[in-house]
Design brief:
single chain, 417 residues, mainly beta, Immunoglobulin-like, 3 domains, seven-stranded mixed beta sheet, five-stranded antiparallel beta sheet, 24 strands, 13% helix, 43% strand, RAB6A-GEF complex partner protein 2, Rgp1
């Protein structure tokens, strides 16, 4: 009886960015006490799979990969129940391994994640996931495989070629230098991380005027357009000089899964749906005020948010709610969870992010009637209200450094009897 164990070298996190090197320790151990065990060979390779509800043909892709990387890729695709998008060349760990009772052999496997691959994503109609496939075979037995899952975050590729050959600059440039030391060249991944840090740290406040058919409600300020997962989306609402009082509001962080299938019907449907929020996208680009308000109903009646069909399929990841009837200013802080997928686009799907506001407004501007006995204001028993919604697209949500996300890697094992 043989046991195969796999554990990542990075023990604090089984999360990697595209372009990083994945390192894994693979252990083969003899768990029996009777006789010597003999394994003919073992290999390891990296696979990226896709599972989707879309009507696409994937047989040609799998056959093409099978010619490149051999039969193991076909077996792995059948085992994972998905289409193989990326398959690295198998790395042979050993040939003709003999294990004595209670003997253990450990092998090291490493592979660089492709920069052009999709991130790990579990959506409504499509899923992308990565596996390290460890295959081995006993003499005169069938092939056994162990699949080790990993999470991959997307890192944008820098397109400028002059940035790829820059050298490391430090504050010690003015000090005397050692002529025998060469300057280290910065890798493409390091440049991407530096560029990503600059993009998400850049502050560019945008102001949006919020109003409905009854008048001015308030002004919303978003301090920067781009964020990283794990950060807080911080904004402010100013209700000064309003003509319509905001009683309460809620803000939801929503992901939009937009289908990009290349058939005429879905392309036309996508174009028609995109025109609904074209004003929102234009306001982010120009920084002008925006009035993207939908239908509202009167006197506290419940409003169906789906009066207009949303773009793609919507998932709500975070929600905040505030009562603001007597407030002139308030802040909005929405955390971006660490488990979400950053913005990305493939040939089949695009993931966008937006803030979905719901305002409950009223034309009753006074706060109530004074109580003659206690000398305090008495709140009105009933307030006529209306509900309005507003969708504000976020420019982009990027990946965070995988080392900042605590996700302890587990040991994955397979027992061959």
């Amino acid at each position: 009886m043989i046991e195969i164990k796999a554990k990542f070298v990075r023990a604090d996190s089984a999360i990697y960015a595209s372009g990083e090197r994945v390192e894994c320790l693979i252990e083969f151990g003899h768990r029996g006490n009777d006789r010597e065990e003999n394994l003919a060979w073992a290999s390891a390779q990296l696979h990226c799979y896709r599972k989707t509800n879309y009507n696409i043909t994937s047989g040609d892709k799998i056959n093409e990969l099978a010619e490149l990387v051999g039969k193991t890729a076909l077996d792995a695709g059948a085992q994972a129940n998905g289409d193989i998008l990326i398959a690295t060349k198998p790395k042979i760990l050993f040939c003709d391994l003999k294990l004595l009772p209670s003997e253990t052999k450990i092998y090291f496997f490493n592979e660089i994640l492709p920069r052009n691959g999709p991130p790990t994503y579990r959506g409504h109609d499509i899923k992308y996931f990565y596996r390290i496939t460890i295959a081995t075979q006993r003499v005169k037995s069938k092939v056994q495989m162990l699949s080790v899952p990993i999470r991959v975050l997307p890192i944008p590729i820098i397109a400028r070629p002059d940035e790829m050959h820059c050298t490391e600059e430090t504050n010690d440039e003015l000090a005397p230098t050692n002529p025998f030391l060469e300057k280290r060249e910065i890798s493409e991944l390091e440049i991407s991380w530096h560029h990503l840090k600059n993009v998400t740290a850049r502050r560019a406040p945008k102001y949006y005027r919020i109003s409905n058919k009854r008048g001015f409600v308030g002004r919303f300020c978003l301090f920067k357009p781009s964020y990283k997962i794990g950060e807080d989306i911080v904004g402010s609402l100013d209700f000064s000089n309003c003509k319509v009082r905001c009683v309460q509001f809620s803000v939801k962080l929503q992901a939009q899964e937009i289908s990009l299938q290349s058939n005429a019907d879905q392309a036309n449907e996508f174009n028609d749906a995109s025109s609904v929020n074209s004003l929102d996208l234009a306001s982010i680009a120009s920084g002008t005020a925006i009035d993207n308000l939908h239908k509202s109903k009167t006197s506290g009646s419940a409003r169906d948010i789906a009066d207009e069909e949303p773009i793609g399929k919507i998932s709500t990841l975070a929600t905040i709610h505030q009562m603001c009837y007597a407030m002139l200013k308030t802040s909005v802080i929405i955390p971006i969870p660490l488990h979400v997928t950053p913005s990305f686009r493939t040939d089949l799907v695009e993931l966008r992010w937006r803030l979905h506001f719901e305002f409950v407004t009223s034309t009753m501007m006074d706060f109530g009637k004074p109580n003659p006995i206690e000398g305090e204001l008495k709140a009105p028993a009933e307030i006529p209200v209306e509900t309005m919604v507003w969708n504000l697209p976020i420019a982009a949500i990027y990946a965070a450094n995988p080392l900042q996300i605590y996700s302890p890697s587990q040991t994955h094992s397979l027992l061959i009897k």
